TrEMBL record, chain A:
Species for this entry: Paracoccus aurantiacus
Pfam families on file: Ni_hydr_CYTB
Limits of the Cytochrome b561 bacterial/Ni-hydrogenase domain: 23-200
Localization per record: Cell membrane
Protein origin, superkingdom: Bacteria
Cofactor: heme
Residues spanning the signal sequence: none
Designated name of the protein: Formate dehydrogenase subunit gamma
One function term, GO molecular function aspect: formate dehydrogenase (NAD+) activity
Ranges in a coiled coil: none
Family in the record: Belongs to the formate dehydrogenase gamma subunit family.
Spans through the membrane: 30-49, 69-87, 129-152, 164-188
TrEMBL record, chain B:
Protein name: Formate dehydrogenase subunit beta
Residues at which [4Fe-4S] cluster 4 binds: 132, 153, 156, 159
Organism (species): Paracoccus aurantiacus
Tree of life domain: Bacteria
Gene that encodes it: fdxH
Record Pfam families: Fer4_11, Form-deh_trans
UniProt keywords, alphabetically: 4Fe-4S, Cell membrane, Electron transport, Iron, Iron-sulfur, Membrane, Metal-binding, Repeat, Transmembrane, Transport
GO cellular component: plasma membrane
GO MF annotations in UniProt: 4 iron, 4 sulfur cluster binding; metal ion binding
Domain named 4Fe-4S ferredoxin-type: residues: 48-67, 111-143, 144-173
NCBIfam families according to UniProt: FDH-beta
Cofactor(s) listed in the protein's UniProt record: [4Fe-4S] cluster
Residues covered by region (Disordered): 1-28
Localization per Swiss-Prot or TrEMBL: Cell membrane
Amino acid sequence: MAEREFSESTDRIVATEPVEVRRYATHTRINHWFTAALIILLILSGFALFWPRLFFLTALFGGGQNARYIHPILGVAACLSFLLLFLQLWRLNLMRREDVVWASKITDLLAGHEERLPELGKYNLGQKFVFWGMFWLLLTMVVSGIMIWQQFFPDLVSIPVRRWAVLVHAISAVLSVLVLIVHVYAAIWTRGTLSAMTSGKVTGGWAWKHHRKWLREVARRQDKPPAE
Amino acid sequence: MTDTAPPPTTAVSNPPVEPLSPNLGDGDVVLASATPNLPPPTRQLDPVAKLIDISKCIGCKACQSACIEWNDTHPEIGVNFGSYENPHDLTSEMYTLMRFNEYEDPDTGNLDWLIRKDGCMHCEDPGCLKACPSPGAIVKYSNGIVDFIHDKCIGCGYCISGCPFDIPRMSPTRHVVSKCTLCSDRVSVGQGPACAKACPTQAIVFGTKTDMIAHAEERIVDLNARGYEHAALYDPEGVGGTHVMYVLPIGDKPEEYSGLPADPKISAVVEGWKGPAKTVGLAAIGLAAVGAALHSIFAKPNEVSEHDRVEAGRMVDDILGPEETAELAVSNPDETGQG
């Protein structure tokens, strides 16, 4: 078995006529959608408290008091869930030299000339940006969120610090929603991506076009050594 | 049908005895938290104020007792920690607190025992109301009283961050914030605040804000004549003035009165959070969502071509060889199936 540099141990070719590649294991997909569901609930309850016109959304949680109570608990749960996802994905999301070249030719990508971009492993810079963006924003939100968690940490920080925490929490929340819009729209615009998180599989053509180094390595890892 | 109670102009007179309907209603609300389209008030009441003349205060805490009794609060039994302050801080059950400070005049060496009755200042521009996310949980009436509506409070504690005077306190059991109401329930039926009613030296007086300022000016002239040359009225402009004011004998050093801020205003951080962070943030999210929608309609999607499919098959064939390729094509029927 060859060294793994661009792929996870669970990635493999599951069919050849046509080629199909397993990209995410079942536990990773469950982990992803569980995190996503929590984040959607966090956005609904959080924006209800951020924008008066959306306050009515607190009714989804059983009123203002309940929304206020559940939001930080959901937040801690989302962070723990994301942590599990992080442990599975961080290695292949580390920056690489080809990411810089890829970023410098981003206009070619948007213009439909992806062949002019370098070959990539499992993730491109956009995907890495979403990954690390969510990592740092969730970390910022959980730290600032605990500082303003009145019910359990009323005296953790002074009032001036608390004012900063509430501002940082709001700005991080806005930025994370922007990152999520990029995440969701990129998955829709790049046709053939969504199946990676539903069935767990992508087509060979998709893998060859967007993540060629990844496809090549997955294939090589499956190449049995010749019989003695 | 009962008559509406007249607004009180003093706390000392005995209240009317006939049944009267309250004079503070929805039509008197001039500001409400998280309510951008508040209907305009139906009338303008005369602004009221409570004036606390520190030079007359003897620190007896009758105001605290009256406050507890009228508001039916139940502060915990305190312990002595070497100060007359009891309890040690404002709590959700103690809306007003005598704060004691020993001050040595740097010029004369005289020791002054400074006693300040702390509590909500009823700001003209209330930071608590600005910070509150729950519609109508904090209201300001046209007479200047800032009131917390407990039924609508969600217990988030944002008002604690918003207040420049560190006044609101969260109940750890009921999860609602409390503070001095300026006895809005008494004022609405023609009576002055309980603390002012109970004060034995009339250090606390209540009436229209105009009357209270006039009274304070007399007191300042008297204090000036008795050696307090810096005596001043505390009605800070940074929060648009307040409806609880002090006569400070040492008016040039308000901080000496247990940290009374010299120039209180709503923190710029809170203004930024409730101002640009909200408008710019929501605009950015809206633009991003609209941009993505337009792009999906007008731009070509990034699709996999037949060429890509052929190349992928060729790459996999080359690496795996014909035997393994053929094996994989049939060996995992349960894992394929979704062409």
